[in-house]
Structures are given as C-alpha cells and as structure tokens.
C-alpha cells in the first residue's frame, strides 16, 4: 500500500493554515486553498467546500474581515484579510501548534 | 477590538440572510470557475470535464451552504418558517378549532386593545394639534386650600402682558346658553367664551366664514359666534349660507361668522364659540368669573423654564397683593392635564383594567390551550415519529408554539381591525353615562403602543395556548417512543385541565347572572312602580343662565332673587295654559336615581340598623316644592304637607343650608325601616355626613330636621328595592342647581313639550329647558349606561358559553378518541350502550357539575340580591348550563356508540 500523496488538512489545523496564509497578503478563498497546496508541495490539500465555512467562522470570530475586490484577471472576488486580533490569534495558535508537534515528536521519538 | 469586530460580523451575517446566500453563491461560482480554469491550464482537460472535476472537488454545494447557514446561527429561522407554514396548514386542517379559538382570541384582543387604547388616551393624551407638546395650561394653585383658584382674571391679564416663555396666552370659560335659531326653536347649548388665541393654537381652517379674531374681543365689537360642526348640522341643518345669520344666544342677538370642521372641539368638546370679553376693571382682584388659561410654550422654551418665569411672577404678585395672593402659586402644565378628566380613583380603575383584560386574555388562552391540547393529543403519533427522526423536545415545542402563534396572530389581526369600534363604543358609553362629550383628543385610532400591547398579548397567548399543551404532550416522548403502540399513549387530561374547565364553567355561569341582574335593575328602574299616573306628566330639566344685561347686579343674592321670580312666573304661565292641571318643581322626580345618604335619628326608638350599612340609616332624599305631593296626587298619610312658610329661601349658594326651614317629610318606608313603625311626627333626623372639614377631611353631621308629615312611597329608587326610606326636604328655589319641572297635563303629556319650551322662552330667554320627557318614559343616563353594560356582559357571556361548549366538546372528543380501543373491547365483551356512555361521561360530567356548583356558589355569595326569585333564577340557569354542556357531549358520545368492536380492535390504536 503506497503512502497517500496528499493529506486532508486536519480540521483543527485548518484555521491555523488559513490565518498563516492570510498573514502574507489578502487573498480569495480559491487562492488560499491553492497557496496551502503549493507551499506544502501538494502534501496538504484543503477540502475546497469546507474552506468557506471555516472562513465564515473566522470572520464571525473577528479574526479576519472580507470585502469584494477585483482580481488580476478582472473578476470580482471576495478577498479575506487578517484583523489585528487575527494577527494575535495567529501568534497564539502557532505557539500551541509548536508545543503540540514538539510533544507529538517527543512521544514518537521515544516509542 | 476583537469583540467589536466579531459583533459587527455577526450582525452583518445575521441580518442579511438573503444577501449572505447571494454572496456565497457568487463566491462558489468564482471558486469553481478558477478551479476549472486551473484544470484546463495545468492538466489540459476540456472545459466540460474540467468543470465536472472542479465541482466534484468542491463537494456538495448545498451541504456547504447549509454549514454556512448553521455558522450564521440561522438554522432556527429556516425551521421557524417551516413551522409557520405548518401552522397555517393546521388552521385550514382544523377549521372548527380555528374558528372557535380564533374568534375567542380575537374577542379577547378586541376588548383588551380597545380598553388599553382608551385608557392610554385618558392617561397620556395626544392632542391632535400642531406642536401639541408645547400647548400648555396655566392655573393658580391655592397652596392653603389645596385646590386651584379659578378666579384668575387679574392674573391672566398680567400673564398675558408679561410672560415671555408662553405665547398665544388665552382663556376661556364654559357656560350653557339657550341658542334660539331663526325658526324660534330654543335649545340649551354649551358655549365657550374664549380668546381668539385659541384659534391660533388649534389653527383648523373654518369650513365657512372665519374664526374669532382679537378684534372680536373688544368691548364695543358686535356680538359674533363661530359654530361647530355638530351645532351646524343639528341646529342649522348644515345650511351653507349660515354665515351672517343672526341668532339669539341667551338674551344677546349674535351673528354667526364661521363654521368649524368636524372634530374641532377646542378647548375641550365645545361646538359654539363666542369671544371672551372680560375686563379686570369690572372685578376686584381675586374675584370675577372662573377662567381656564391656556397658551403655547415659546419656541425652544421648556416647561421648567416657563415654570421658573411664572413662579417669579407669582412671587411678585404675592408680595404686591398679600391678601389675595399670599397662598397662590401659579403653575404651568401640559394642556390635557388641566382638563380634570380622570381623578385618582379612576386612574386606579384604568390601571387595574389592564390587569382585568390581561386576565380575560389568559382565560381565553386557557381555553384555546385546551383545544390545542386536544389537537396536539390527536397528533401524538406524528410528534413521536418526529421525535424518533431526531427532533428534540424544544424543536417540537417550537413547532407547537409557532402553530399557536399563527392562530393567535390571525385572530389578533382581526381583533385589532375592529378595536377601533371598541374604542368608539367605550367613548359612547362614557359620553352617555356622564352626559358630556369627551375631550376632542379622544379618537378611535389605535396608537403604536396599543398595537405593541396586542402583539405582546398575542405572543403571551401563543405561549399559553401552544407551549403549555406542548409541554404536557411532549412529556415522556422517549418512553412512548419505546412503546410499540405509539398513539395509544398515556396522555390524559390532568388536574390543570380539570381546573381550567371547572373555572371556565364557573365563570360562564357568573357572566350571564351578572348580566341578568343588571338587566333586571335597568328594567325595574324603567318600570318603577310609582303610585301616580306617570303618563299624564311631562318632565323637563330647567336651568338659568347667569348671562345678565350689562350693569346688572352680579351678586348671588340678586341672582337668587331673579331665579325665584322667573321660576314662579314660569309656574304661573304654565298653569294658565289650557290642559295643564298642575305644575311643580323638585331637584329629582320619581323614577329618577335618588342618591343614598346616611342619616341619624334622635333618641326615642328606631328600627335596628341594616348591618350592610353600619353607622346610621341609608335613605334617599329629594327637595320638593310646596305643592309637589298635591300635583302628583299623593295623599298626606300623617301630619301635614309642606307650607309656604317652610319654603323660606336660604341665603347661601347651592349646598349651603343657610337658614332654610328645618322640616322634612318622610315616606311610609322610612317610618317602617328607620323608625320601626313608631310615630314619626315630631321626631328629628340629620345627615350623618353633611359638611367635610377642609383640612382634616373629617365629616360633621348636619343640623337636626323635624319630621312634619308622612306620604306614600313615590318611586325614589328602583323597583328591586322599592321600599327605600325616603326623605323630602323643602326645595330651595334660589339655589343655583338645575331643577326638574313636572307638568300634569290632561291628555297626551308628550304633546305639551313644544309648548313648554315656548312658554319658558317667553318667560325669560336665559331659561334653559332640556331632557323633556313624559314621566313614564323617563330614562336617566344611568339606565342607558346599564343597557350598554348589559349588552357588553351579554356578549361576553355568549362568547364564554361558546368557548365552554367548545372546550367540553374538545375534551369529550379527545376522551372518546383515546378510549376507542377500550370502548371496542367493552362492547365486544357485551357492555350495554348505557354502561359505555356512563364510563365515557363520568369525568366530563363531574367537571361540568363541579363548575356549575362552583359558579352557583360564587354567584350566590357575590350577589347581594338573595331573593327566592334570584336564587330560583340562578338554579334554573345552572340547570340550563348543565344541559348546554351535555349537548356539547352529544357528538362524541354518538361517535363512541358507533364504534364497532372489530374495527376498534383492528385499529393499531
């Protein structure tokens, strides 16, 4: 059985990935998915449909905002960007994630 | 910052459901398009295939949309819409329940909203005037006497010239005048003598002619009048050429210069206006006519600022004129407050009526709840299945609430639709009862507050009618879900429903009994036994204007003398008319309401006091002229009749005894009820509560009066209590109170009416005659009000009766439906129809009987009229109610008896 080439983004980490992606620049939904896939070298694939509820949840929590803008090829698209509290939340989430992976790594290394 | 961001985002999402859906659709479309383009570009797929794969990669669009809606917290909204739709379907599916429950609730809302609106208009008037909140009244409060001092002519003049914060200052006084039109018809009419400023504060354009102007107030200006719509219609038949016509107002020929539009009633509810022409030079300070002062706050001035300026003027006046103004404190208030429409007790009544109507709504809701419960119970299987499919108890409750909300909402809309009629009815009833029109700001429109109140009641009603039965029905759904025989569940009417039914039947019993007793009172009063041929007598109310010719003596003594002369002259001329046998005067005539008074009698033996009225004897009294008993044909039974010497005029104004002769006559009932049949001649009596001390409010007894004669009972009170102890006092013809004249005519007394008016007019143009009626048709406003009350209570009773029947019907149907299987088994085992009926009937019969007994006991306790006739009536009615309730059981019983055992057992129920 060959290893799966792509991994669905774990639900818990999707928010972190979206926040991190948006910390670089404002982006539309499709762009976010593409960016995650590109950066992870195709390892992480976002379930396209579930990205939007996540974006809405983050918006509701006040971590991101959105507005309509025009893309490079002249299409109208909804662009998302991080708010101040989004930046703060990204910091906290990153710390948590690092602690989590360190813990996970430690366990995996010793067993 | 994050909290605000979050809130903003939440609100935006919540309040823009459609917008959000559209936004998401566009976002998805964009996403699919981008993904399709990428697949075409990177994998070289044809467009159609690329799009297909893009869609697959995205997943179910609807699922994600739903997730988005959930994320917005709007799931319930979709559910509510569905529930409301279901509610509407239920209305159509159960037309009987819709009709009865809906009508009941509509009725409750109609009554409650009408009363709320009326109370609102009384407590918080909204004047239909421009800048209404700037219209004010000013009064001079006498801090020592604790009342307003109305003789403010001098102060009014000062305020008018000096007040800066109140503009358009004006004053008015109201008087009754005879309005004699060109056809010679004379009728008393209420006239407002008013400053022209009134027509600038209430700037309605006249229909014809002009309004009053400042120039009209000059002493030398010609006498003019503006007439209102009512006067124009009723006295001038709506003649468009009325302007310029000269009519006689009291003794003054007056030119009509304008006609005001319908609804114009400033200052209160007048329909005839003449200029106010008063000069402070004619009166001493602190003296003069009673005036009401009004004005309008200057632009940008608050009530408090105006009060400050007024207080300063008041202080100055107190310093300058300490004798008259030491205790006077001028004060400014919103205009409507100055019209003493509602005093403390009525205010309490108005407020408590909110509670009463809330109770009515709850009672109706209880009933609707009963019906809804029965309906919900028949749908038990549906509810259990829904629960099995995952609906929570809250979800099912929400559905039942929504169904009730639809029913109550539709009913409330109907109720509100006719609530205007309710307000109009109330206004009419009050105007009839008080004999006066209500202030011009009362109208039949509903305020937003009333609509809000009705909406609140509707939600409350839906809560009671939907949620309470829902709680009961959904209890133990889990358990019933486990039972294979869902639908044969253990739902029964518990104690609360029994209580609702019993209370309702009790109340249903109570309403018509009240209606009956009021109706009987009214009928009895109308048919009051008075031992004289009432049809031969014509009665009329007479009063005299104080409208004197210029330069006349304005003292009370002069007025009293003039009044006495005029009345005697009227009597003399009436007697000279052909067909007139006798003429007499009294402050009240037989068959009119005689207010009760408590009296003491001197030592020498008396009947035991009525425990219902401790501390004295309850009597009715009238003041009568010397020939009163002669004219009415009443024989003096003992002692003597009044003599001219008893009629010594008092010297004081109305209500003050002066040195009037202190003799009285009494009726037969007095001798029996108060003196226990002892000889009354020479005995003395006095009013227990005669004069109230101004400070302490304590009552002092009046002077002693000697009994000089006894006459038969002459109809001083209603027939249910015909033997009221009556006292007759000598009439003070000089007092400034309206009197009644009774004219004994040979032949048809009613035909003498026009002649009576003509003679009165000829005696003095300021002698006003109204309420002309034959004495056997005499009907005072109290009776009219009673009639209205009877109608109202009757309607309530019919509605309550219908509701009870519907409730009982619902309970019976429900019981039969629940017990189909049981009845089937019983019949299969050989039970006779009688046994089946007994088994089915036992419970409702108990409830109905309990209700009837409770209602009967309640009625018997609260009804002070415990005559055998009344008791028999209550009993008969109770039996009738029982029968009506049993009729409601006929259909369900018939249904029960038709149950075929085989069918019942085959049914899965």
CATH class term of chain A? Mainly Alpha
Succession of helices and strands of chain A: EHEHEHEEH
Mean pLDDT of chain A: 83
Biggest sheet architecture of chain B: 6 strands, mixed, barrel
Fraction of residues in helix of chain B:
40-55%
- Give the termini separation of chain A: 23 Å
Quickly describe the structure:
By secondary structure, chain A is of the alpha+beta class. Chain A has helices at residues 11-24, 29-39, 48-60, 84-110; strands at 7-8, 27-28, 44-45, 64-70, 76-82. Chain A has one domain: Winged helix-like DNA-binding domain superfamily/Winged helix DNA-binding domain (Arc Repressor Mutant, subunit A).
Give the helices and strands, then pairings.
The complex is a heterodimer of chains A (111) and B (909).
Chain A: E1 7-8, H1 11-24, E2 27-28, H2 29-39, E3 44-45, H3 48-60, E4 64-70, E5 76-82, H4 84-110
Parallel strand pairs in A: 1-3
Antiparallel strand pairs in A: 2-5, 4-5
Helix pairs in contact in A: 1-2, 1-4
Chain B: H1 2-14, H2 17-43, H3 47-58, H4 61-72, H5 75-93, H6 95-123, E1 135-142, E2 147-149, H7 153-162, E3 166-180, E4 186-194, H8 198-201, E5 208-209, E6 224-227, H9 229-236, E7 246-249, E8 252-259, E9 272-275, E10 292-297, H10 303-320, H11 322-325, E11 328-334, H12 344-378, H13 380-388, H14 393-417, H15 419-434, H16 448-474, H17 477-482, H18 495-526, E12 537-544, H19 556-576, E13 580-586, E14 596-601, E15 617-624, H20 628-631, E16 638-639, E17 663-667, H21 668-673, E18 684-687, E19 691-692, E20 699-700, E21 705-711, E22 726-730, E23 739-745, H22 753-763, E24 767-774, H23 781-818, H24 820-828, H25 833-862, H26 868-887, H27 890-897, H28 901-906
Parallel strand pairs in B: 4-9, 6-8, 15-22, 17-21
Antiparallel strand pairs in B: 1-2, 1-10, 1-11, 3-4, 3-7, 3-10, 5-8, 6-9, 7-8, 12-23, 12-24, 13-23, 14-15, 14-18, 16-21, 17-22, 18-21, 19-20
Helix pairs in contact in B: 2-3, 5-14, 6-12, 6-14, 6-15, 6-16, 6-23, 12-16, 12-18, 12-23, 14-16, 15-23, 18-23, 18-25, 18-26, 19-22, 23-25, 23-27, 25-26
């Amino acid at each position: 059985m060959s290893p799966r080439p792509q991994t669905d983004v774990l639900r818990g980490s999707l928010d972190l990935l979206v926040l991190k992606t948006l910390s670089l620049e404002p982006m539309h939904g499709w762009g976010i998915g593409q960016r995650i896939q590109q950066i992870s070298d195709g390892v992480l694939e976002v379930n396209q449909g579930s990205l939007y509820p996540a974006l809405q949840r983050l918006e509701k929590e006040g971590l991101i905002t959105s507005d309509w803008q025009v893309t490079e090829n002249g299409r109208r698209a909804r662009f998302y960007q991080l708010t101040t509290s989004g930046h703060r939340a990204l910091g906290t989430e990153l710390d948590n994630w690092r602690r989590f992976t360190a813990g996970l790594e430690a366990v995996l290394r010793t067993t | 910052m994050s909290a605000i961001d979050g809130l903003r985002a939440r609100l935006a999402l919540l309040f823009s459901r459609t917008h959000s859906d559209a936004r998401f659709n566009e976002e998805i479309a964009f996403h699919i398009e981008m993904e399709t383009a990428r697949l075409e570009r990177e994998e070289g797929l044809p467009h159609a295939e690329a799009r297909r794969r893009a869609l697959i990669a995205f997943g179910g669009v609807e699922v994600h949309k739903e997730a988005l809606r959930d994320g917005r917290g709007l799931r319930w909204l979709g559910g509510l819409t569905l529930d409301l739709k279901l509610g509407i379907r239920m209305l159509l599916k159960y037309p009987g329940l819709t009709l009865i429950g809906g009508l009941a609730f509509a009725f409750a809302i109609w009554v409650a909203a009408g009363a709320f609106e009326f109370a609102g208009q009384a407590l918080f008037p909204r004047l239909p005037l421009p800048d209404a909140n700037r219209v004010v009244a000013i009064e001079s409060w006498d801090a020592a006497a604790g009342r307003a001092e109305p003789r403010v002519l001098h102060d009014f003049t000062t305020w008018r010239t000096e007040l800066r914060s109140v503009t358009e200052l004006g004053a008015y006084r109201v008087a009754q005048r005879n309005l004699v039109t060109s056809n010679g018809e004379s009728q008393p009419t209420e006239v407002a003598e008013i400053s022209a400023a009134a027509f600038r504060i209430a700037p309605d354009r006249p229909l014809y002619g002009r309004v009053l102007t400042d120039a009209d107030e000059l002493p030398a200006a010609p006498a003019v009048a503006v007439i209102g719509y009512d006067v124009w219609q009723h006295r001038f038949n709506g003649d468009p050429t009325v302007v310029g016509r000269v009519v006689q107002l009291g003794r003054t020929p007056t030119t009509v210069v304008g006609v005001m539009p319908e609804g114009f009633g400033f200052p209160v509810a007048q329909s005839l206006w003449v200029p106010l022409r008063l000069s402070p030079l004619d009166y001493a300070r602190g003296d003069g006519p009673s005036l009401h002062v009004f004005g309008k706050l200057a632009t940008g001035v608050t009530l408090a600022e105006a009060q400050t300026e007024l207080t300063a003027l008041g202080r100055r006046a107190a310093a300058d004129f300490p004798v008259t103004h030491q205790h006077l404190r001028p004060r400014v208030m919103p205009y409507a407050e100055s019209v003493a429409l509602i005093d403390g007790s009525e205010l309490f009544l108005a407020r408590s009526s909110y509670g009463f109507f809330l109770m009515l709504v709850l009672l109706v809701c209880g009933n609707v709840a009963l019906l809804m419960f029965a309906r919900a119970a028949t749908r038990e299987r549906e509810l259990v299945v829904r629960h099995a499919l995952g609906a929570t108890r809250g979800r099912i409750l929400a559905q039942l609430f929504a169904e009730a909300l639809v029913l109550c909402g539709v009913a409330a809309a109907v109720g509100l639709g006719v609530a205007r009629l309710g307000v109009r009815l109330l206004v009419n009833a009050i105007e009839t009862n008080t004999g006066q029109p209500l202030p011009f700001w009362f109208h039949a429109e509903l305020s937003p507050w009333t609509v809000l109140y009705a909406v609140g009641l509707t939600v409350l009603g839906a809560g009671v009618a939907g949620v309470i039965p829902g709680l009961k029905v959904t209890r133990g759904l889990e358990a019933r879900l486990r039972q294979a025989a869902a639908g044969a569940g253990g739902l029964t009417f518990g104690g609360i429903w029994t209580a609702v039914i019993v209370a309702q039947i009790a109340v249903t019993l109570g309403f018509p009994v009240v209606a009956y007793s009021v109706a009987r009172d009214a009928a009895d009063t109308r048919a009051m036994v008075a031992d004289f041929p009432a049809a031969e007598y014509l009665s009329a109310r007479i009063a005299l204007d104080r409208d004197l010719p210029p330069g006349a003596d304005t003292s009370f003594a002069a007025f009293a003398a003039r009044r006495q002369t005029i009345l005697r002259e009227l009597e003399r001329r009436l007697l000279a008319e052909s067909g007139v046998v006798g003429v007499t005067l009294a402050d009240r005539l037989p068959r009119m309401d005689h207010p009760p008074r408590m009296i003491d009698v001197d030592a020498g033996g008396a009947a035991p006091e009525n425990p219902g009225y401790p501390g004295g004897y309850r009597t009715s009294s009238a003041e009568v002229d010397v020939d009163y008993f002669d004219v009415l044909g009443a024989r003096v039974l003992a002692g003597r009749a009044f003599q001219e010497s008893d009629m010594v005029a008092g010297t004081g104004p109305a209500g003050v005894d002066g040195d009037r002769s202190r003799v009285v006559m009494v009726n037969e009932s007095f001798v029996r009820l108060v003196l226990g049949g002892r000889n009354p001649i020479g005995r003395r009596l006095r009013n227990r509560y005669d004069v109230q001390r101004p400070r302490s409010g304590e009552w002092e007894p009046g002077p002693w009066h000697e009994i000089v004669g006894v006459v038969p009972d002459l109809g001083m009170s209603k027939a249910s209590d015909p033997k009221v102890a009556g006292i007759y006092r000598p009439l003070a013809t000089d007092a400034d109170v309206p009197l009644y004249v009774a004219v004994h005519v040979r032949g048809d007394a009613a035909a003498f009416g026009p002649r009576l008016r003509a003679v009165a007019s000829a005696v003095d143009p300021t002698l006003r005659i109204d309420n002309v009626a034959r004495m056997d048709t005499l009907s005072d406003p109290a009776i009219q009000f009673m009639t209205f009350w009877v109608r109202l209570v009757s309607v309530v009773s019919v509605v309550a009766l219908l509701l009870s029947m519907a409730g009982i019907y619902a309970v019976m149907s429900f019981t039969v439906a629940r017990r189909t299987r049981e009845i089937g088994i019983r019949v299969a085992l050989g039970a006779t129809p009688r046994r089946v009926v007994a088994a089915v009937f036992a419970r409702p019969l108990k409830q109905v009987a309990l209700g009837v007994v409770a209602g009967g006991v309640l009625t018997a306790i609260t009804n002070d009229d415990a005559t055998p006739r009344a008791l028999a009536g209550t009993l008969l009615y109770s039996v009738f109610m029982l029968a009506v309730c049993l009729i409601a059981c006929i259909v369900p019983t018939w249904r029960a008896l038709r149950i075929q055992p085989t069918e019942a057992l085959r049914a899965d129920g």
